[in-house]
Amino acid sequence: MLNIGNLSLPDFPLLLAPMEDVSDPPFRSVCKQYGADLMYTEFISSEGLIRDAAKVSKNWIFTTKNALLAYKYLGVDLDAMRVSAEIVESRNPDLLDINYGCPVTKVVCKMAGAGILQDVPRMVRLTETVVRSTHLPVTVKTRLGWDDKTKNIIEVAERLQDIGIKALSIHGRTRQQLYKGNADWTLIAEVKNNPRVHIPIFGNGDIDSPQKALEYKQRYGVDGIMIGRAAIGYPFIFREIKHYLQTGELLPPATVAERVAAARQHLSYAMRWKGQTLGILETRRHYTNYFRGFPNIKEYRMKLVTAADPDELFDTLDNIARAYDGFVPTRQDSTLQAV
Predict the structure, then answer these.
(1) Does residue 338 sit within a domain?
(2) The pTM is what?
Protein backbone atom coordinates (compact mmCIF):
# COMPACT_ATOMS: atom_id res chain seq x y z
CA MET A 1 0.00 0.00 0.00
CA LEU A 2 1.03 3.63 -0.53
CA ASN A 3 0.06 6.24 2.03
CA ILE A 4 -0.76 9.91 1.56
CA GLY A 5 -1.06 11.10 5.12
CA ASN A 6 -3.58 8.74 6.69
CA LEU A 7 -5.05 7.76 3.31
CA SER A 8 -4.07 4.39 1.84
CA LEU A 9 -3.83 3.77 -1.91
CA PRO A 10 -2.82 0.65 -3.85
CA ASP A 11 0.84 0.21 -4.71
CA PHE A 12 1.60 2.31 -7.80
CA PRO A 13 -1.82 3.98 -8.05
CA LEU A 14 -3.28 5.36 -11.26
CA LEU A 15 -4.60 8.89 -10.81
CA LEU A 16 -7.13 10.63 -13.04
CA ALA A 17 -5.69 14.06 -13.79
CA PRO A 18 -7.77 17.17 -13.16
CA MET A 19 -8.89 18.60 -16.50
CA GLU A 20 -10.96 21.74 -16.77
CA ASP A 21 -14.35 21.12 -18.40
CA VAL A 22 -13.59 17.38 -18.49
CA SER A 23 -13.10 15.96 -14.97
CA ASP A 24 -16.71 16.33 -13.91
CA PRO A 25 -18.60 13.73 -11.84
CA PRO A 26 -19.96 11.77 -14.84
CA PHE A 27 -16.49 11.43 -16.36
CA ARG A 28 -14.97 10.52 -12.99
CA SER A 29 -17.61 7.85 -12.44
CA VAL A 30 -16.83 6.12 -15.73
CA CYS A 31 -13.08 6.28 -15.06
CA LYS A 32 -13.57 4.87 -11.57
CA GLN A 33 -15.49 1.95 -13.03
CA TYR A 34 -12.52 1.06 -15.21
CA GLY A 35 -9.81 1.35 -12.58
CA ALA A 36 -8.84 4.91 -11.61
CA ASP A 37 -7.60 4.82 -8.00
CA LEU A 38 -7.76 8.53 -7.14
CA MET A 39 -9.70 11.22 -8.95
CA TYR A 40 -9.46 14.99 -8.89
CA THR A 41 -12.24 17.49 -9.36
CA GLU A 42 -12.02 20.27 -11.87
CA PHE A 43 -10.33 23.20 -10.21
CA ILE A 44 -12.12 26.23 -8.84
CA SER A 45 -10.59 29.48 -7.65
CA SER A 46 -10.57 30.07 -3.90
CA GLU A 47 -12.55 33.28 -4.40
CA GLY A 48 -15.12 31.51 -6.57
CA LEU A 49 -15.41 28.76 -4.01
CA ILE A 50 -16.17 31.26 -1.27
CA ARG A 51 -18.80 32.95 -3.43
CA ASP A 52 -20.49 29.67 -4.30
CA ALA A 53 -19.73 26.97 -1.75
CA ALA A 54 -22.55 24.89 -3.23
CA LYS A 55 -20.16 23.98 -6.04
CA VAL A 56 -18.24 21.87 -3.57
CA SER A 57 -21.25 19.72 -2.77
CA LYS A 58 -22.21 19.51 -6.44
CA ASN A 59 -18.83 18.05 -7.29
CA TRP A 60 -19.49 15.13 -4.93
CA ILE A 61 -22.41 13.70 -6.93
CA PHE A 62 -21.71 10.16 -8.20
CA THR A 63 -18.90 9.73 -5.67
CA THR A 64 -19.15 6.47 -3.76
CA LYS A 65 -17.47 5.37 -0.56
CA ASN A 66 -15.06 3.34 -2.67
CA ALA A 67 -14.03 6.26 -4.87
CA LEU A 68 -11.20 8.37 -3.48
CA LEU A 69 -11.62 12.02 -4.39
CA ALA A 70 -9.32 15.02 -4.13
CA TYR A 71 -10.84 18.48 -4.28
CA LYS A 72 -8.66 20.83 -6.32
CA TYR A 73 -8.55 24.59 -6.09
CA LEU A 74 -6.20 27.50 -6.68
CA GLY A 75 -5.73 31.08 -5.57
CA VAL A 76 -3.27 33.83 -4.69
CA ASP A 77 -4.84 35.40 -1.60
CA LEU A 78 -3.80 33.94 1.76
CA ASP A 79 -7.11 34.59 3.52
CA ALA A 80 -9.16 33.23 0.60
CA MET A 81 -7.04 30.09 0.50
CA ARG A 82 -7.54 29.58 4.23
CA VAL A 83 -11.32 30.05 4.12
CA SER A 84 -11.59 27.82 1.05
CA ALA A 85 -9.71 25.04 2.81
CA GLU A 86 -12.21 25.19 5.65
CA ILE A 87 -15.15 25.04 3.21
CA VAL A 88 -13.71 22.04 1.41
CA GLU A 89 -12.91 20.21 4.63
CA SER A 90 -16.53 20.55 5.78
CA ARG A 91 -17.54 18.33 2.83
CA ASN A 92 -15.16 15.52 3.87
CA PRO A 93 -13.17 14.78 0.71
CA ASP A 94 -10.23 12.41 0.96
CA LEU A 95 -7.64 15.01 -0.03
CA LEU A 96 -7.27 18.69 -0.72
CA ASP A 97 -5.09 19.44 -3.73
CA ILE A 98 -3.66 22.82 -4.68
CA ASN A 99 -3.31 23.58 -8.38
CA TYR A 100 0.03 25.17 -9.23
CA GLY A 101 0.06 23.66 -12.69
CA CYS A 102 -2.74 25.21 -14.78
CA PRO A 103 -1.03 27.02 -17.70
CA VAL A 104 -3.94 28.96 -19.23
CA THR A 105 -3.45 32.69 -19.61
CA LYS A 106 -6.56 33.78 -17.70
CA VAL A 107 -5.23 31.93 -14.66
CA VAL A 108 -1.50 32.67 -14.80
CA CYS A 109 -2.03 36.39 -15.44
CA LYS A 110 -3.37 36.53 -11.89
CA MET A 111 -0.26 34.70 -10.64
CA ALA A 112 -2.45 31.66 -9.92
CA GLY A 113 -1.98 28.13 -11.23
CA ALA A 114 1.42 27.78 -12.90
CA GLY A 115 1.85 31.54 -12.62
CA ILE A 116 2.95 31.12 -9.02
CA LEU A 117 6.07 29.32 -10.26
CA GLN A 118 7.45 32.80 -10.84
CA ASP A 119 7.28 33.44 -7.09
CA VAL A 120 8.25 30.34 -5.13
CA PRO A 121 8.31 32.08 -1.71
CA ARG A 122 4.68 33.09 -2.22
CA MET A 123 3.85 29.54 -3.31
CA VAL A 124 5.32 28.31 -0.04
CA ARG A 125 3.34 30.85 2.03
CA LEU A 126 0.08 29.96 0.29
CA THR A 127 0.66 26.25 0.75
CA GLU A 128 1.59 26.61 4.41
CA THR A 129 -1.59 28.59 4.99
CA VAL A 130 -3.68 25.76 3.55
CA VAL A 131 -1.80 23.05 5.45
CA ARG A 132 -2.40 24.87 8.73
CA SER A 133 -6.08 25.44 7.91
CA THR A 134 -7.19 21.84 7.45
CA HIS A 135 -6.89 18.37 8.92
CA LEU A 136 -7.07 16.88 5.44
CA PRO A 137 -3.93 15.65 3.68
CA VAL A 138 -2.80 18.49 1.42
CA THR A 139 -1.19 17.65 -1.92
CA VAL A 140 0.08 19.78 -4.79
CA LYS A 141 0.18 19.47 -8.57
CA THR A 142 2.66 21.63 -10.43
CA ARG A 143 5.06 21.78 -13.38
CA LEU A 144 8.83 21.70 -13.83
CA GLY A 145 9.03 25.48 -13.71
CA TRP A 146 7.89 28.64 -15.45
CA ASP A 147 10.20 28.24 -18.48
CA ASP A 148 13.37 26.45 -19.54
CA LYS A 149 15.51 28.91 -17.54
CA THR A 150 13.62 28.38 -14.30
CA LYS A 151 13.10 24.64 -13.88
CA ASN A 152 13.05 24.86 -10.10
CA ILE A 153 11.01 21.76 -9.29
CA ILE A 154 13.64 20.23 -7.00
CA GLU A 155 13.66 23.33 -4.79
CA VAL A 156 9.85 23.50 -4.95
CA ALA A 157 9.48 19.86 -3.90
CA GLU A 158 11.80 20.23 -0.93
CA ARG A 159 10.22 23.44 0.33
CA LEU A 160 6.64 22.24 -0.05
CA GLN A 161 7.43 18.97 1.66
CA ASP A 162 9.06 20.84 4.53
CA ILE A 163 5.90 22.81 5.25
CA GLY A 164 3.69 19.73 5.27
CA ILE A 165 2.31 18.57 1.92
CA LYS A 166 1.76 14.80 1.75
CA ALA A 167 2.33 14.12 -1.97
CA LEU A 168 3.40 15.96 -5.10
CA SER A 169 2.26 15.43 -8.71
CA ILE A 170 4.56 16.83 -11.38
CA HIS A 171 3.65 17.51 -15.00
CA GLY A 172 6.81 17.10 -17.04
CA ARG A 173 6.54 20.40 -18.89
CA THR A 174 7.09 24.06 -18.04
CA ARG A 175 4.28 26.57 -18.14
CA GLN A 176 5.66 28.10 -21.33
CA GLN A 177 5.44 24.72 -23.06
CA LEU A 178 1.73 24.43 -22.31
CA TYR A 179 1.04 20.92 -23.71
CA LYS A 180 3.51 21.09 -26.60
CA GLY A 181 6.51 18.88 -27.14
CA ASN A 182 7.35 15.81 -25.12
CA ALA A 183 7.07 15.76 -21.35
CA ASP A 184 10.50 15.60 -19.67
CA TRP A 185 10.42 13.03 -16.87
CA THR A 186 14.13 13.25 -16.02
CA LEU A 187 13.55 16.06 -13.53
CA ILE A 188 10.59 14.17 -12.07
CA ALA A 189 13.00 11.28 -11.47
CA GLU A 190 15.51 13.65 -9.83
CA VAL A 191 12.83 14.77 -7.40
CA LYS A 192 11.85 11.18 -6.65
CA ASN A 193 15.49 10.12 -6.13
CA ASN A 194 16.38 13.16 -4.03
CA PRO A 195 17.32 11.79 -0.57
CA ARG A 196 15.69 14.87 0.96
CA VAL A 197 12.29 13.94 -0.47
CA HIS A 198 10.23 11.26 1.27
CA ILE A 199 6.65 12.04 0.18
CA PRO A 200 5.04 10.17 -2.76
CA ILE A 201 5.91 11.62 -6.16
CA PHE A 202 3.51 11.10 -9.07
CA GLY A 203 4.45 11.71 -12.69
CA ASN A 204 2.18 13.22 -15.31
CA GLY A 205 2.52 13.79 -19.03
CA ASP A 206 2.24 11.71 -22.21
CA ILE A 207 1.20 8.39 -20.63
CA ASP A 208 -1.07 6.95 -23.31
CA SER A 209 -0.39 3.20 -23.33
CA PRO A 210 0.26 0.31 -20.95
CA GLN A 211 3.75 -0.12 -22.39
CA LYS A 212 4.69 3.48 -21.69
CA ALA A 213 3.27 3.27 -18.17
CA LEU A 214 5.52 0.30 -17.36
CA GLU A 215 8.53 1.87 -19.07
CA TYR A 216 8.18 5.12 -17.11
CA LYS A 217 7.55 3.27 -13.85
CA GLN A 218 10.78 1.35 -14.26
CA ARG A 219 12.89 4.14 -15.74
CA TYR A 220 11.89 7.02 -13.47
CA GLY A 221 10.90 5.25 -10.25
CA VAL A 222 7.82 7.35 -9.50
CA ASP A 223 5.27 6.18 -6.93
CA GLY A 224 2.36 6.33 -9.37
CA ILE A 225 1.22 8.01 -12.56
CA MET A 226 -1.43 10.55 -13.40
CA ILE A 227 -3.34 10.10 -16.64
CA GLY A 228 -5.18 12.93 -18.33
CA ARG A 229 -5.85 13.33 -22.03
CA ALA A 230 -5.50 9.62 -22.83
CA ALA A 231 -8.56 8.91 -20.66
CA ILE A 232 -10.86 11.28 -22.53
CA GLY A 233 -13.37 9.05 -24.27
CA TYR A 234 -11.30 6.01 -23.33
CA PRO A 235 -11.59 5.24 -19.60
CA PHE A 236 -10.46 1.69 -20.39
CA ILE A 237 -6.85 2.95 -20.30
CA PHE A 238 -6.81 2.42 -16.52
CA ARG A 239 -7.89 -1.22 -16.83
CA GLU A 240 -5.37 -1.89 -19.57
CA ILE A 241 -2.45 -0.36 -17.65
CA LYS A 242 -3.26 -2.22 -14.44
CA HIS A 243 -3.48 -5.55 -16.22
CA TYR A 244 -0.21 -4.97 -18.05
CA LEU A 245 1.64 -3.94 -14.90
CA GLN A 246 0.39 -7.04 -13.09
CA THR A 247 0.80 -9.64 -15.83
CA GLY A 248 2.96 -8.24 -18.63
CA GLU A 249 0.15 -9.06 -21.03
CA LEU A 250 -1.75 -6.60 -23.17
CA LEU A 251 -5.52 -6.70 -22.94
CA PRO A 252 -7.37 -6.39 -26.23
CA PRO A 253 -8.61 -2.83 -26.82
CA ALA A 254 -12.14 -2.14 -25.65
CA THR A 255 -14.74 -3.77 -27.85
CA VAL A 256 -17.42 -1.92 -29.77
CA ALA A 257 -20.00 -3.05 -27.22
CA GLU A 258 -17.88 -1.77 -24.32
CA ARG A 259 -17.36 1.61 -25.97
CA VAL A 260 -21.06 1.99 -26.70
CA ALA A 261 -21.95 0.98 -23.13
CA ALA A 262 -19.47 3.46 -21.66
CA ALA A 263 -20.77 6.25 -23.89
CA ARG A 264 -24.36 5.47 -22.88
CA GLN A 265 -23.42 5.45 -19.21
CA HIS A 266 -21.51 8.71 -19.57
CA LEU A 267 -24.43 10.42 -21.28
CA SER A 268 -26.94 9.11 -18.72
CA TYR A 269 -24.80 10.33 -15.82
CA ALA A 270 -24.26 13.72 -17.44
CA MET A 271 -27.99 14.32 -17.92
CA ARG A 272 -28.70 13.31 -14.32
CA TRP A 273 -26.02 15.64 -13.02
CA LYS A 274 -26.39 18.69 -15.28
CA GLY A 275 -29.88 18.34 -16.65
CA GLN A 276 -30.83 17.15 -20.10
CA THR A 277 -29.69 20.10 -22.23
CA LEU A 278 -26.32 20.77 -20.61
CA GLY A 279 -25.62 17.08 -20.07
CA ILE A 280 -26.05 16.42 -23.78
CA LEU A 281 -23.91 19.38 -24.78
CA GLU A 282 -21.03 18.58 -22.45
CA THR A 283 -20.85 14.91 -23.39
CA ARG A 284 -20.28 15.73 -27.06
CA ARG A 285 -16.57 16.39 -26.55
CA HIS A 286 -16.03 12.72 -25.63
CA TYR A 287 -17.67 10.93 -28.57
CA THR A 288 -14.79 11.35 -31.01
CA ASN A 289 -12.49 9.40 -28.77
CA TYR A 290 -15.04 6.76 -27.80
CA PHE A 291 -15.21 5.80 -31.46
CA ARG A 292 -11.82 6.89 -32.78
CA GLY A 293 -10.56 4.70 -35.58
CA PHE A 294 -13.97 3.34 -36.57
CA PRO A 295 -14.25 3.31 -40.40
CA ASN A 296 -16.93 5.51 -41.93
CA ILE A 297 -18.00 6.78 -38.51
CA LYS A 298 -18.51 10.39 -39.62
CA GLU A 299 -22.26 10.12 -40.20
CA TYR A 300 -22.86 8.64 -36.76
CA ARG A 301 -20.51 11.08 -35.08
CA MET A 302 -22.30 14.03 -36.65
CA LYS A 303 -25.58 12.78 -35.19
CA LEU A 304 -23.99 12.39 -31.76
CA VAL A 305 -22.64 15.96 -31.74
CA THR A 306 -25.77 17.62 -33.16
CA ALA A 307 -28.76 15.72 -31.76
CA ALA A 308 -30.53 17.35 -28.81
CA ASP A 309 -32.99 14.58 -28.03
CA PRO A 310 -31.87 11.81 -25.63
CA ASP A 311 -33.84 9.10 -27.44
CA GLU A 312 -32.17 10.02 -30.73
CA LEU A 313 -28.75 9.90 -29.10
CA PHE A 314 -29.35 6.51 -27.51
CA ASP A 315 -30.76 5.21 -30.81
CA THR A 316 -27.61 6.42 -32.59
CA LEU A 317 -25.42 4.61 -30.06
CA ASP A 318 -27.47 1.44 -30.56
CA ASN A 319 -27.09 1.85 -34.33
CA ILE A 320 -23.32 2.08 -33.94
CA ALA A 321 -23.35 -1.15 -31.95
CA ARG A 322 -25.30 -2.90 -34.70
CA ALA A 323 -23.41 -1.37 -37.62
CA TYR A 324 -20.02 -2.30 -36.21
CA ASP A 325 -20.95 -5.71 -34.85
CA GLY A 326 -17.93 -7.88 -35.58
CA PHE A 327 -15.56 -4.94 -36.03
CA VAL A 328 -12.44 -5.37 -33.90
CA PRO A 329 -10.76 -2.08 -32.96
CA THR A 330 -6.98 -2.18 -33.16
CA ARG A 331 -4.64 -0.90 -30.48
CA GLN A 332 -3.73 2.01 -32.71
CA ASP A 333 -7.39 3.04 -32.58
CA SER A 334 -6.97 3.41 -28.82
CA THR A 335 -4.14 5.96 -29.03
CA LEU A 336 -6.28 8.92 -28.13
CA GLN A 337 -5.97 12.64 -28.39
CA ALA A 338 -7.53 15.47 -26.44
CA VAL A 339 -10.56 17.00 -28.13
Answers:
(1) no
(2) 0.91
